[in-house]
Amino acid sequence: MAPTLHLIYGSPPVRAVLITAKAIGLTLNENEINLFGGDHLKPDFLKLNPQHTVPTLVDDDGFAIWDSHAIITYLVSKYAKNDALYPKDVKKRAVVDQRLHFESGTVFARLLRITRPILFEGKTTIDPKDRDNILEAYGFLDVFLNGKQWVAGDFISVADYSLVSSISSLNILIPIDAQKYPNVIAWLKRMEARPEYAANVKGLADFATLFKSKLS
């Protein structure tokens, strides 16, 4: 049996998991839930994940884990043929972990500051301060990528998959200026050319449709 991923396709963290699974050749049972209908608050789901978030993964032995960063490192550690995407070398892994924490604590956190009020509070604009925070995050990433092909160095990793799901989403809301952030644009194009990026396409389109319809 394959692991089951509870998801909504528009979610950037969900897409990070889907990209990772495709990269390692792992087929997942995909269970789309009705988040706006409250499926994530039902007792059975709360037993799996008391934080009631997506993505939530349930492995074939019943083991449940949530948070995309925990899920992608778990899947690579258990199912990948080697450690290329999440190296065992402590220094390389430390850099990958730092980039994952950057995605979680900076990039996605700032994305949520924009998307949550639009989705749940009826907001139709992006505040200048929130826009500036995103531009700052683009700037950080551009520096990380200076002279490098991938966000953790000369090898692609789960950090690239985590970041590309959020950065591609942010690019819908606040387009990346190629003149100011050329390294980010070049990296994004490299990611889009990879076969595993196909797992990002449907959800990104869903994300774009949803937010373009709500922004004035």
Please provide a written account of the structure.
By secondary structure, the chain is α+β, with helices and mostly antiparallel strands. The chain has eight helices and four strands, in the order βαβαββαααααα. It has a four-stranded mixed beta sheet with strand order 2-1-3-4, with helices on one face. The chain starts with a strand and ends with a helix.
State the gist of this model:
The protein has 216 residues and is of the alpha+beta class. The chain is built from eight helices and four strands; from the N terminus they run βαβαββαααααα.
| General shape | globular
Q: Which runs of at least 5 residues are low in confidence (pLDDT < 50)?
A: none
What letter string, H or E per element, gives the SSE order?
EHEHEEHHHHHH
Largest sheet: 4 strands, mixed
Rg over C-alpha atoms, rounded to the nearest angstrom: 17 Å
Number of helices: 8
Spell out the key features of this protein.
216 residues, alpha+beta, 4 strands
Question: What's the SSE blueprint?
Answer:
Blueprint: E1 4-7, H1 12-23, E2 29-32, H2 43-48, E3 56-58, E4 64-66, H3 68-79, H4 90-120, H5 128-144, H6 158-173, H7 182-192, H8 198-214
Parallel strand pairs: 1-2
Antiparallel strand pairs: 1-3, 3-4
Helix pairs in contact: 1-3, 1-6, 1-8, 4-5, 4-6, 6-8
